[in-house]
Amino acid sequence: LPDEDSKIDHYVLEYRKTNFEGPPRAKEDQPWMVVEGIKGTEYTLSGLKFDMKYMNFRVRACNKAVAGEFSEPVTLETRAFMFRLDASTCHQNLRVEELSVEWDATGGKVQDVKAREKDGKGRTASPANSPAR
After folding, report:
1. 30-77 pLDDT per residue, tens
2. Residues of the chain with CATH 2.60.40.10
3. Which CA distances in Å does 34 have to 19, 44, 117?
4. Helices (H) and strands (E) in the chain, counts
5. Distance between CA atoms of 79 and 109, rounded to whole angstroms?
6. How far apart are CA 121 and CA 33, in angstroms?
7. Which CATH code fits 10-78?
8. Beta bridge partners of 67
């Protein structure tokens, strides 16, 4: 990190997608994307997609006159967040299957809920079980 009296004015971040783990290859197909004018030592890169597993990053410091050398490139993995929906606890209008979720405006589960209520196994009148929740 630069000292408080450092001459660093801003940073430039470059990144690109790659299919390879580890340091960048000599010949990469993807061009470097550039983010200029970063004032702090932290930056959040948004808009990344999980269509490729790895990304290369490099950064350099700049003062008002000249830019420094790039850092050694770092390769990071962009992992996807995996989750599942539970068909037994989801909203009554959602139809959840193995690999799909579908909105059913007619409330396909309403008949099931009413049948369970008749058997004494349905919802209680508490706000926690309200359909509006």
Report:
1. 788 999 999 988 999 887 776 667 888 999 999 888 999 999 988 888
2. 10-78
3. 19, 14, 59
4. 1, 6
5. 34
6. 57
7. 2.60.40.10
8. 62
